[in-house]
Design a protein that fits this description.
- The chain has two domains: 243 residues, Bira Bifunctional Protein, Domain 2 (BirA Bifunctional Protein, domain 2); 95 residues, Anticodon-binding domain (Rossmann fold, 3-Layer(aba) Sandwich).
- The protein is an alpha+beta fold.
- Helices cover 40% and strands 21% of the residues.
- The longest helix has 20 residues.
- It binds adenosine-5'-triphosphate and magnesium ion.
- Magnesium ion binds next to loops.
């Protein structure tokens, strides 16, 4: 084997030890989204580069520095998706999902961004998201936020803060843009390189800077909320009313602009203090112009993306995984007759108990070494079958997690016993 064959920097293997908490989180996500009437849309991981340039925006960090872009064998420029919304919109337009109808969609899967890897920030990471199309009132913004709130409740997260803001209409943002350019132009030496470049192209981006040296400057900037158009003000008020009515707490953060250009009106982030610098676990908002921008008809839209890697860190660090993937039963067999009876017995038990997790010993071994495997597997019970038991049509049931006595039961009663005492 070649030396030093390693995964690509920033791309992670999820090992069996962690996969239980991943599955736990993903299962909750799927059930939750479905329970609110959202349906899954699976899109390809590779799209044409143009799609992301036209949606996420040319002057964003993602498009300027983070995309995995390459030419394929035909010379077409392709990109590994850095986020899920662009593909969802592309697919929706392509398949006519938005025409004269409402759509509630969800997705889950890997995304790729060439960033500096650190805790909670990877080059290959996972997002789950929901998106609602064709609904323009604040009721749907509130529903989308409520889905996230319920996600945290189901996972047992306590300290998550919701920040909301409104970016207003395109015209309102255009006015605000001028005000911002004026503000930041007063002393351009205070701006870092990225911000100087973006000053005239996209000054709102400066508010989203991660550079701590610019914090004071950004905090002194005029507030977008003072430049909102009337309709956006009403929309924002409607959202706040609904959040209040559901008892979902929030903070209005007038500097919140998000790192993607397609947003308008509502934007929001859910932030935890428990992960250090990488505290944003969910981000979203409204993107009413995006469908049209990508060639579809005018369609209002609202959604969020959740960083699943960060959820998994929280679940693991706070021991919140309630799911159990360990086997109920480890089947120990010794002797040829026992092995033949045992393999058939395993299949019969699986036939009659659909939720049974049974790990059958394979590869032989002494009773002692098989019982060691049983302990290591985390199984709750060992079922022990030797040639003598086969002869007398019995099996030994040995509890592994308690000090209860082992007992011998008839093979004819085993299925009922498993159902009554082992699975439940
Ligand atoms: P950040 O400010 O952390 O860079 P972002 O604004 O780039 O986030 P979005 O594009 O809105 O993030 O993505 C939504 C969520 O996906 C983020 O809030 C975060 O939880 C997660 N996320 C984004 N980039 C990464 C990454 N490189 N690794 C892990 N999770 C990520
Ligand atoms: Mg980012």
């Amino acid at each position: 084997m070649a030396k030093n064959l390693q995964s690509v920097r920033g791309m992670r293997d999820i090992l069996p030890e962690q996969s239980a908490s991943w599955q736990y989180i993903e299962n909750i996500a799927r059930e939750l989204f479905t329970s609110y009437g959202y349906n899954e849309l699976r899109s390809p991981i590779i799209e044409s580069t143009d799609l992301f340039k036209r949606s996420i925006g040319d002057t964003t960090d993602i498009v300027e520095k983070e995309m995995y872009t390459f030419d394929d064998r035909n010379g077409d420029s392709l990109t590994l998706r850095p986020e899920g919304t662009a593909s969802t919109v592309r697919a929706g337009i392509q398949h006519g999902l938005f025409h004269n109808q409402q759509q509630r969609l969800w997705y889950i899967g890997p995304m790729f961004r060439h960033e500096r890897p650190q805790k909670g920030r990877y080059r290959g990471f996972y997002q789950a998201g929901i998106e609602a199309y064709g609904i323009d009132g604040p009721d749907i913004d509130a529903e989308v936020i409520a889905v996230a709130a319920r996600f945290w409740k189901k996972l047992g997260f306590k300290k998550v803060r919701l920040e909301i803001n409104s970016l207003g209409s395109n015209e309102a943002r255009q006015n605000y843009r001028e005000v911002l350019i004026e503000y930041f132009s007063k002393d351009t030496s205070l701006l870092d390189e990225d911000s100087q470049r973006r000053l005239h192209k996209n000054p709102l981006r400066i508010l989203d800077t991660k550079n701590p040296k610019m914090r004071e400057l950004v905090e002194g900037a005029p507030s977008l909320l003072d430049y909102l158009d009337e309709e956006s003000k009403t929309h924002f008020a409607g959202l706040k009313q609904r959040l209040d009515s559901m008892g979902i707490e929030y903070v209005v953060n007038p500097r919140l602009v998000r790192g993607i250009d397609y947003y308008n009106r509502t934007v929001f982030e859910w932030i935890t203090e428990d992960l250090g610098a990488q505290g944003t676990i969910c981000a979203g908002g409204r993107y009413d112009g995006l469908v049209k921008q990508l060639g579809g008809r005018e369609t209002s839209a609202c959604g969020f993306g959740i960083g699943l890697d960060r959820l998994q860190l929280l679940v693991e660090e706070q021991n919140l995984n309630q799911a159990d993937n360990n086997p109920h039963i480890f089947l120990v067999m010794s002797g040829e007759a026992a092995e033949l009876t045992g393999i058939k017995l395993s299949e019969n038990l699986r036939d009659s108990n659909a939720s049974l997790r049974l790990l059958m010993n394979a590869g032989g071994g002494s009773f002692k070494s098989q019982l060691k495997r049983a302990d290591k597997s985390g199984a709750a019970y060992a079922l022990i079958l030797g040639d003598a038991e086969v002869e007398s049509r019995n099996i030994v049931v040995k509890p592994l997690l308690t000090n209860d006595e082992q007992q011998t039961i008839s093979l004819d009663d085993l299925s009922d016993f498993v159902e009554q005492h082992i699975i439940n």
